[in-house]
From TrEMBL:
This is PX-domain-containing protein. Residues 32-47 have a biased composition (Polar residues). Residues 48-59, 211-220 have a biased composition (Acidic residues). GO terms for cellular component: cytoplasmic vesicle; plasma membrane. PANTHER family: SORTING NEXIN (PTHR45827:SF1). Keywords: SH3 domain. Pfam families: BAR_3_WASP_bdg, PX, SH3_1. Residues 250-377 form the PX domain.
Amino acid sequence: MSTLPRSTKSSLTPAGVSFFESRPVSDFDAGINSSTAWTQANPSTSLSDDEPEDDEEEAGQAARALYNFEGKAEFMELTVEAGDELEVLKEEVGDGWSMVRLDKNGEVGLLPQTYYTFTADFAASPALEIPQFTRKREPSAQSITPRGSPKGEKEALPIIPQHTGEWFPSFRQSLLGGKSLNRFSSFVTSGAEQWVLKGSTSEPSPPRSVEDDDSDEEDESSNRLSRVGMGEADRHFVDVGPAWKTKVPPFRVLVHSPSKRTSSLSGAYTIYSVTSLFHPTTSEDGGVDDSPPGSPMRITVHRRFSHFVVLHTALTRRLPGIALPPLPEKQYAGRFSDDFVEARRGDLERYICRIARHPIARYAEVLTFFLGCESDLEWKKQLPYHLSLPPAGPSFYAHVFHPAFNLDADDATDAVDRFDAHTRAVGKGVQGLRNIFGQVREARVEMSKAERLLSYSLLSLITSKPLASAPTTGISEEEEEDNPQRKGLLNDDNAWCWRDGCQECLKLTKAMQKTSETLQNVADLYDDHARRTQLATHEALKSVAHPSSMYGGVIETHRSALSRYNTAVSQQPTDDEVAARCETVLNTTMAEMETYHTHKVEDFRTIATDHLDGEIAFYEQVLARLKTARRTFDPPLYDTDADSPHQPSMYERELENPRLTAKPLTQPCPHVYDSAPMRPVSAAIQEGVGMIFGSSSIGRASVFGKFWRP
């Protein structure tokens, strides 16, 4: 088996030389994506979970087209030729597109970010000629594409938070199973291709505000959660395995205490308390101490959903080589309801906890800033710095360090095939498990109804009062009109007997009434268990759903790097530098696969144990109540029931109108990658009729009823 070569330092290619190669023309139409970019670029049609912040209007920047591009007019795309003068009105409008104006005719439209370069810092060079090179169109899998010519410090602009999707799955998700249409592959958008072909060019330093130059102490306080040193957060190490080498121990993050607030500028929004718990105790060798930790250090900050979007977008730009969990979806209606706020809180907590436990992401500078900046003034002062950080691109891989000969090419090929098949199978299995678990919750509600009906029937038996929903009670209408005591149904102590003063029947009646009331308590336990404990488990299953979609970019990058490696080692002479850079990319992707393996074990073990603990606690409560009811039939409790007359039960008033109709179960918010199954039009029409006339026999009230349940 061939072994990957030792990693060596690569020579840097001069800035400005394109790394793109000509590729076959793709018949894959990505018009949906470009139309989405146009919609996102138009402020009048933009949608947001929170009210939009007030942003200053960006001035256009001078640029020049690098390649010929034939746009499609129906999707508002520009057609440009290499060398055309452009004015970039908005650099990022989503999915790797920019809003530009063509100087020669003033036409405004969309243009891929990789097809132009800024000319603000260009020097005059009469001898320079622009080659007539045409860039072919290809599908993509990311919304941000690194540019070959980085901007200078003055040209860096704040990033725009990405669109995280709709509350209910869109038709694109319905057709593609949660995948989106893009122009370029993950191998390109992550910067791995540029790194493999020509290494990494020097990355410009992000612009600093005037306040940042006042004191270095302020910079230190803003990064209080991570003491990894200047620039250390951008250096990543891979151990033998390959597996990521951790720099800081894992910590826990809680998202709690949501509250509604109103701003005169941004309107109403929900703010969440985010508390980070750190255990400072460590072992002598620097690892995590297994001894019981002391009181953890707590840092609590307040963040809104838009802040989480900024965090996610910044992490995506700075850590393109790792698989980040998706953000929960946005909500356009009912986002202040108690059920939705609680569901959003749980989703945000699961998201930030997955970020905090990733061995690379948890010491990212933007994460430590997000979790540690307690001052609103400091937050507003430092936020522009993090928003203006350029995409890492190939520099991410340039700062990945690993042992030489850390993996074998044949093993890497076999590993990615097995990993791809495994994640697909896990995703399919989890989807089935989520569906079955929903049925289990519904069954618990039905069991609650059955226990309650049994309680009513038992109470109806000992009181001789008819149950409204019972098919028959054995009592005629004439008997119901008369006093039951005169007919021998109840005696003078309201005991279930025709003999007056019968103490045995009095004790039996009281014991059976307590049994009936216990069954009501058991029914309440079943209902509460399905709505709270099992709902938490149902929500937690989303954290292990769709691993193939989450790691799709890693798999694609891994296979592309393997292909480039095989080409580099098979040609004569062997391109050792390209092969060595392929080794770096493969170490990164293999480390991500190992991270998934570790997290999978942790996640499924936690979900299983939490479910079992919840079931044990539930059945222990049921068992305790049943044992209490059972003791009422044994002395001395049974004997003391004869000391006083029988008193009516609090549930007797419900016999005429029993509580057998439960409100619908609260369903988990759909996962970002969930796809809505396409159903026949007749089913949608029937549900629409049911929504209008309120007929329960037709079905759900709305086509999207399962997503809009309270």
